[in-house]
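During the second half of the funding period, the structural biology subgroup turned its attention to how the target accommodates small molecules. The most pressing case was nicotinamide-adenine-dinucleotide, which had performed well in the primary screen but for which no bound structure existed. We therefore specified the complex as follows and requested a full 3D prediction, including the ligand pose.
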Amino acid sequence: MTWRIAVAGTGTIGGRVAAELGAGRVAGCELVAVLDSSSDDTVIGEALRSADLLVEASTAAAARVLLPRALDAGLRIVLCSCGILADRSVESDLRRRGAVLGADVLVPAGAIGGLDILGAAYRASVRTPGRTSVGTSDCTAGGCAVPEVTVRHTTTKKPAALGVSAILTEPDVVFRGSAREAALAYPLTSNSSVALALATTGLDNVEVVIVADPAATSTRHRIELSSSVGRYDFAIENTVSPASGGRTSEITAWSVIDVLEKSARSRTPVMTRFHSEVIQGH
Ligand SMILES: NC(=O)c1ccc[n+]([C@@H]2O[C@H](COP(=O)([O-])OP(=O)(O)OC[C@H]3O[C@@H](n4cnc5c(N)ncnc54)[C@H](O)[C@@H]3O)[C@@H](O)[C@H]2O)c1
């Protein structure tokens, strides 16, 4: 069986994904439709009718419209604009529709990685006395065990990519807060923070630091997780797409393609395990 894919967005991510699909270089997947900002209601409807899965690589505003439409049409969706999940109204809408994160809604690791071991460390750490299973809020008579897992995600970009117009002479921390707050304050920069948070301690528990560095020529990520089973410290340096104004890393589209091919091959959605219960934190 071949998965029929519609792609929304023809920019840095969508353009690459559609090109690879169109060239037949994603095994088990076939490109059936491409949507952009000019696609009207009829075109969107036709695309959703013809596809099994929608790759959303558009904008946060468009994703808010396309996500429920795709789910209602029975499609799975790879959600690149995953920062919208930080909005509690989107989260409750998903819940109302019975959509399952990691099955119906796939969140690519995007510009970062290592989510497998970080998710495993989170899982191991929350299996402490007083917690019955991962992500549940059940408390026994012994009290609730708060998992001793701390996660910090530091993203460093050039100032213009963060909308910083001031002339900087040295790196400047422009934001420090939770992944949820980051997604709301810096929606174009925080999608990978949201993916990290969903894989680990949740949107309200991952600390996000955003740095504007006038000397930056790439986008840098530092991911630090400390847990009862180990400490992890990853450094990632991504080439940015020139066409994206320094915002989007080239690797992101390939992360989406990886999810598509692995999922098609195994005939089931394949992505880093997500603890869907932790959207709301603990
Ligand atoms: N998950 C991640 O790690 C990650 C990384 C980078 C970017 N992103 C997000 O992914 C999305 C795409 O990023 P990009 O860099 O490719 O953006 P881009 O600006 O290069 O392209 C955006 C595309 O969306 C299209 N579009 C706009 N409105 C649309 C609509 N209503 N319907 C369909 N298409 C529409 C535009 O035509 C354009 O082709 C953005 O929301 C961005 O914030 C996610």
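Two results from this model are relevant to the next phase. Residues 129-145 have pLDDT under 50 and may be disordered. The chain has two domains: 3-106, 115-248.
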